[in-house]
Amino acid sequence: xxxxxALLAAIGTVASAFAMPAAAEFPEKPIRVIVPWGAGGDxxxxxxxxxxxxxxxxxxxxxxxxxxxxxxxxxxxxxxxxKPDGYTLVNAGLSNVQVTPNFSQVSYDFDxxxxxxxxxxxxxxxxxxxxxxxxxxxxxxxxxxxKRLTQGSWGAASSGTILASIxxxxxxxxxxxxxxxxxxxxxxxxxxxxxxxxxSFPPAFEPHLKSGSARLLVVNKKSDxxxxxxxxxxxxxxxxxxxxxxxxxxxxxxxxxxxxxVEASAQAMxxxxxxxxFENIGAEVDFRHGDEWVADMRDTYGMMAEAAAEMRx
Length: 313
Description:
By secondary structure, the protein is of the alpha/beta class. It has helices at 2-19, 42-58, 73-80, 94-103, 137-146, 159-171, 183-191, 202-211, 255-269, 272-281, 291-311; strands spanning 31-35, 62-66, 88-93, 113-123, 125-129, 149-153, 175-179, 197-200, 214-219, 242-250, 284-288. The model is unreliable at 1-23 (pLDDT under 50).
């Protein structure tokens, strides 16, 4: 009788195991990636290239949704408050996860996220229109000292404005910032003659360089891409003036979900077509993930906190 009871118990256990639904393997439904900026900027374009590539790898739709407003705060906050299951992600970058929490009153900080991957890096450049009287950065600096010039950016607490302010402070000039919703909109204002200068990243400014409607006076680092254009360091300006684009998830996303996204991203970023697409945008592939990358971001976050404290003095 005991043997029969034991056998029945064993059978019951096996039956129960088969009756229990298997744990769903990520992903089993569409993924949504919020870009907290308007369409056409470097963050939007790099995210779309990534999304198209990982969609094929993961086998589910990866939809990019633009939710601009509040210098990236509206879209970013939505992801912070989303369910931490990996199905709602955000395009992360210098502006919305490192600059804004230090320079604005927002409901989140760096620790409100689970960093997933860094995709690309883009150098900040300072540009003028084709008819500008300023043919060099030295002439521009002198012009800004002689009279108050305007400079386009994309929000008071955006990475462009903050980095530009650091440059201006070190070079000894001031400008009046004219804020657009995106880098692309800012460049349209520049080539339309509505502002004297603009700071921007290659995805937004490179087409205007090629068309001859804008001139690049100085850029973060010298490169073959912008042959003959000096760097900020050439003028004694210290710092790394670079934007970046990556993917973050809400805090608390399971590690196995992060690992799956990292694995798919690593595969995507090795695809020659993806690399070429990033080059065409004007972004450099800079794929990173893991503890060392997160530690570097924390260092930059600390530097931004110091810069914010300095500006409040």
